[in-house]
Amino acid sequence: MCGFFLNINYDKTITEKEIDQxxxxxxxxxxxxxxxxxxFINENIFxxxxxxxxxxLNIGANQPMVHESKKFILxxxxxxxxxxxxxxxxxxxxxxFDTKSDTEVLLKGLIEWGTKVFDKLDGMFSGIFINLxxxxxxxxxxxxxxxxxxxxxxxKQLFCSxxxxxxxxxxxxxxxxxxxxxxxxxxxxxxxxxxSPIEGIYxxxxxxxxxxxxxxxxxxxxxNSIPSIETVDNTINMESALIKVxxxxxxxxxxNLRSDVPSGxxxxxxxxxxxxxxxxxxxNQEIKSFxxxxxxxxxxxxxxxxxxxxxxxKHDHMFIKVHPEDMVGAxxxxxxxxxxxxxxxxxxxxxxxxxxxxxxxxxxxxxxGGDELFAGxxxxxxxxxxxxxxxxxxxxxxxxxxxxLLPENENYxxxxxxxxxxxxxxxxxxxxxxxxxxxxxxxxxxARLSGQKNDPxxxxxxxxxxxxxxxxxxxxxxxxxxxxxxxxxxxxEFVCGHTDKASMMNSLEVRxxxxxxxxxxxxNSLPDQLKINSTKEKIVLRxxxxxxxxxxxxxxxxxxxxxxxxxxxxxxxLKPRFDDLLDCEEWESDNLINIDxxxxxxxxxxxxxxxxxxxxLNLMVFRAWRRNYPHIKxx
Length: 635
Prior knowledge:
- This protein has 635 residues and is α+β, with helices and mostly antiparallel strands.
């Protein structure tokens, strides 16, 4: 796990002053790679790299890695789990190796197979490969976006990095805030698809690479596993699905445990992490597990964790108890280091978890991806009931009024919170319903906050990234359409985004075995009925846990998000930061939102009239991030 920074100047020679600046840019990534610094420089190229040593700890494996011919350069972030298998194939083709690293395997794989190498990789990665002989650069990102990739290209220069901060640290550029993307962030809590907070800086889409020359940046997609009617194998029954899924998970976990540093597993108590934990114990009986817990019962999963580990006598598990004051520290430290606003409460949980486990391990396995591949979220269950509303003669507004009379409750997923979230998506309309269900606020609230009469996030704009290569041509069930969105947009930038950012702040590598290409392909080939029924989601994974001998309390549990009592703590321990970051003076200066609308959201939340923690947390994180980069202008 590492961080890289690249500048190619197609117009002129890079000056000594610029080289000094680019070294500083690279060193903004030190938390991603505290073990070594490396660079490659010629008259118009600067490549900087920070390394977190995981596989082959020797200096020969440091990056940027330059091929012995001096024609090729590689710098990347991540790990290639199947590097040993690929290495044997390359050796059979006559390649020799000087290191035991996955980096050298990827370098020589790119030389041998070109961009077709990406189809062969099982791992998480993003990086740059430069062919000096033909002056071409290939930029690339893993299949579901576990590792971030930011770039700026204007035909005179190419900038790339693992984090936005490295690029916007170049203060001679007149960076400007992207207001349209800001409103999209308010709605979702993250910057999805190709968007970033800055005009002209983009993310490379997951499963894509681009070939860059002086005048062109041409993107291509290499990974295209899409849940659709065409990809489903209707001959698969539960028995064969269980065998396929179980074998694929065991194989993926085995590959993910390849490391030259200590490894462990995150065990939240949920379905996905329990399956991974069980698989880890088959491979390594001594592996340690870690989780966080709360005093607030509705947020605390430690009773489930205790039941799970009781199956394994003398197992070494570490509970990290999170108190309100711990979250204040996590919020302050995290927002000070964030390169891009991210409003997911799970970001702060992950930060505390990885900070506390770092003294014990350097690599952790996580259950990320299980929900997005096997339909694990509430909206999958809600589809059927949302479509039924047309048969009910009671007006939706009347139902909303009745629900509004329910008392506010700070518990996790309270009845009122769930009912209001569900009703916000009615009347049923595929894209609009999904937008409302996943949003931090209703479209009308975003419109008021933005000072516009109409929704600034029209449906086509919100889903633009989702359909950049699909354009509605696929034959999909509603479940498959939702899966498509979750896999293409939500998983990379929301789930993997918070995991990568928080763990890298603590120099800890987190791997997600569920995101192996083989598991992705199997999941997307399963019929809907093996993933969801009228009352339960992730059917095949629940059955797998049952088959493994876990109790009904574990395999039949309700979905619990990786969050904390944010609604309550914004009124208590986090209230000083709430008041500070939502102070109207700074917001008025930026002229991004309607101050009256902000005041109303704050008042209603603090006084228990409505639970607005999601949109308010998004605003707080954005303001904290904005203070870190005052040189960014707002039009």
